[in-house]
Amino acid sequence: MDDAVQEVCLRQGSGWSFAALPPKNARDRIMSAASFLFCNHGFAATGIDTILTRAGTAKATLYNHFKSKEELITAVLEAEGETWRTWFFGRLADVTGPARTRVLAVFDVLEDWFSDPGFYGCPFINAVAEFDTNDDTVRRLADQHKERLVTWLKAQAIEMQVPDVAETARSIAVLIDGAIVAAQHSRDASFARTARKLAECHLAAVGAR
Amino acid sequence: MDDAVQEVCLRQGSGWSFAALPPKNARDRIMSAASFLFCNHGFAATGIDTILTRAGTAKATLYNHFKSKEELITAVLEAEGETWRTWFFGRLADVTGPARTRVLAVFDVLEDWFSDPGFYGCPFINAVAEFDTNDDTVRRLADQHKERLVTWLKAQAIEMQVPDVAETARSIAVLIDGAIVAAQHSRDASFARTARKLAECHLAAVGAR
DNA sequence: AAATAAATAGACAGAATAGTCTTGTCTTTT
DNA sequence: AAAAGACAAGACTATTCTGTCTATTTATTT
After folding, report:
1. Which of B47, B110, B152, B163 ranks highest by number of CB atoms within 10 Å?
2. pLDDT mean across residues, chain B
3. Is ipTM over 0.90?
4. Chain A CB contacts of B202 below 8 Å
5. Residue B173 touches chain A, beta carbons under 8 Å
6. CB pairs under 8 A, 24+ apart, for A136-145?
């Protein structure tokens, strides 16, 4: 089974991808191919030609939509972030009950994410890890993504009436990062539960309601 | 100030590098240059020629010591891991008091690490993030490194007489990973303290002595 | 001093890289 | 039917990549 077939199979299961079925217009096909290859094989390691072959498009088409590889990388990261957040917050919106329940549900949703056989970690963490230490382009995108997560966490923290909203949000954020990295390295989704217990511990300690 | 000068200055401050002074023999010079470039600019993004220029060696010399770039990467990761562990456990060995104090001191040592202006995150986390999802070569090296850390944590957990040694070790490991990533992204060393508080919280909850 | 080992400089091969450009086909809109 | 635009196929440039090889020089050892 080659990459393309595998991707469709896996992503139909996970349900947070660009699309369950292969997109028909060229731009989306390029985005989909680039996303898969960048995230699974690395940004620098993935050549334009490889993306073209996978997307089944011509080179001129790619450079008609994106002025450079760097711009394509940016577009992919933004799209990955958008898609992920929609999926993630969508799942959390279904959770009924107080904010505390919703925050703890974060780790159940993470466990589902980690359990996807095609799980490759967080694209932003991977990108910051790969690119130059002083490359602020990628760092800004990652910051922006995390900021939206932290904003959500702060809103929950306020609802939970914790004494230090920012510190609670930071704590949960650290637990999320730690769980992602641990799960990515070990391929063991249960690290989400370890992180969840730590979150419970924190929330209990600060008297979250 | 160019990279080479900067490296020496910074690393003399941090004290966990290969050597405070530039090494004289060719092999060490290659290792030192490769370490710096791989860790700061990425593994794939760093070319052999760039390493040679920085190390001031000939190409034949490099390929006389390492049969390929991949082998050099492996050697660099192993050396980085060895150096880091020596520094890290050395710092912790200086901590007096019960195991609980020693485990919490982990996060103080991490904060020092994060505070180094040349801090680039954990080479293993970065390498796993960059290389192919299915590349087990790098993953094995990372596993090996983390395993040694977890082994140490388990030993402390036993001394602390916690009910579930493995779970406590996993928890601290998740906190370490989370702190590293959060600090790397934000360049904010104080995430070590956030992680520390979470660790205190866990240890208190499981009744560590 | 002679012999051996190690490092230097750099040419070179072969493949891959990002990006440009031309030509032709197909589809949609007017 | 005609015009317009999107796309495919692929040639092409110019650079960079890893890795090999030769020839020369420096260091070390015998």
Report:
1. B110
2. 92
3. yes
4. 197-198, 201
5. yes
6. A137/A70, A137/A74, A138/A73, A138/A77, A139/B185, A141/A74, A141/A77, A141/A78, A141/A81, A142/B185, A143/B185, A143/B186, A144/A81, A145/A81, A145/A85
Q: Which residue is nearest to nucleotide D6 (CA to C1')?
A: A61
Question: Which structural domains are found in chain B, ordered by start?
Answer: 1-68 (1.10.10.60), 95-209 (1.10.357.10)
* C strand bases under 7 Å from protein CB: 6-11, 16-23
Q: Cβ contacts of residue A77 below 8 Å, gap of 6+?
A: A123, A124, A127, A138, A141
| Residue A113 one-letter amino acid | W
Nearest by CB to residue B41, choosing from A45, A132, A205, is: A132
Answer yes or no: are the C-beta atoms of B188 and B182 closer than 8 Å. yes
A9-67 per-position pLDDT tens digit: 444 434 444 444 566 799 999 999 999 999 999 999 999 999 999 999 999 999 999 99
**Nucleotide nearest A51 (Cα, C1'):** C18
Long-range contact list for A158-167, CB < 8 A, 24+ apart? A159/A98, A159/A99, A160/A98, A160/A99, A160/A100, A160/A103, A160/A203, A160/A208, A160/A209, A161/A207, A161/A208, A161/A209, A162/A203, A162/A206, A162/A207, A162/A208, A163/A206, A163/A207, A164/A206, A167/B194, A167/B197
